[in-house]
From TrEMBL:
InterPro entries: ANTAR (IPR005561), CheY-like_superfamily (IPR011006), PAS (IPR000014), PAS-like_dom_sf (IPR035965), PAS_fold_3 (IPR013655), WH-like_DNA-bd_sf (IPR036388). CDD domains: PAS. This is ANTAR domain-containing protein. It comes from Pedococcus aerophilus. Residues 114-175 form the ANTAR domain.
Length: 198
């Protein structure tokens, strides 16, 4: 499956997979994480090889299900980057179907290595006065993408850090957009976190 680079999207880790052409487009951040040079085509085997062996079969199975059933999805797994560093990541996205079959899979990845393991509890405590809206936003992301609480918080926290938006303001935006799992809501939250149109 050839990969094509997209414009530099800063810290974003975004991807777009077109099923009928078997073509992946991914941000510079994903290319760096997987050790793929700009313009270098990559086979799926290369991508799978970067996933930690204990997670590989699970992720491949999830990908196969995503190609069969349209809708939002998420998963958490580990990648070994070219320097040998293990990264804990959350992948979230949506598979879209034309009548009868999935034709496109779009989404984003968040490196939660430090966020979940070290900072999540402290950040929630520091945001005690804003806890209700943060909890609501976590719940919306959990419901939309089917991810666990820690992963949903890590997505919020990383997006907040990468875009210099206060966590409470980001949470309020997620809640005010009414994200609750409908197809339109899934599209809105994907756009919010990826910065791209549907």
């Amino acid at each position: 499956m050839p990969f094509e680079a997209v414009d530099n999207l800063g810290p974003s880790l975004m991807f777009d997979y077109l099923v009928n052409t078997d073509t992946w487009t991914c941000s510079e951040g994903i290319r760096a994480l997987y050790g793929v040079a700009e313009g270098q085509p990559v086979k799926t085997a290369h991508m799978l090889a970067r996933i930690v062996a204990e997670d590989r079969d699970t992720i491949f199975g999830m990908f196969q299900r995503t190609l069969q059933t349209p809708g939002p999805f998420s998963c958490e797994f580990r990648i070994c980057d070219p320097r040998g560093t293990i990264h804990h990541v959350v992948l979230a996205g949506e598979s879209r179907a034309a009548p009868g079959q999935v034709e496109r899979v779009q989404g984003f990845m968040v490196d939660i290595t430090n966020s979940v393991r070290q900072g999540a509890a402290e950040a929630v405590e520091a945001s005690a006065e804003h806890r209700a809206v943060i909890e609501q936003a976590k719940g919306a992301i959990m419901a939309t993408f089917g991810m666990n609480e820690a992963a949903a918080f890590a997505v919020l926290q990383r997006f907040s850090q990468n875009h210099n938006i206060k966590l409470r303001d980001l949470a309020a935006r997620v809640v005010s957009d009414g994200v609750c799992g409908s197809e339109d809501d899934v599209t809105r939250i994907r756009q919010m976190f990826s910065g791209t149109p549907a």
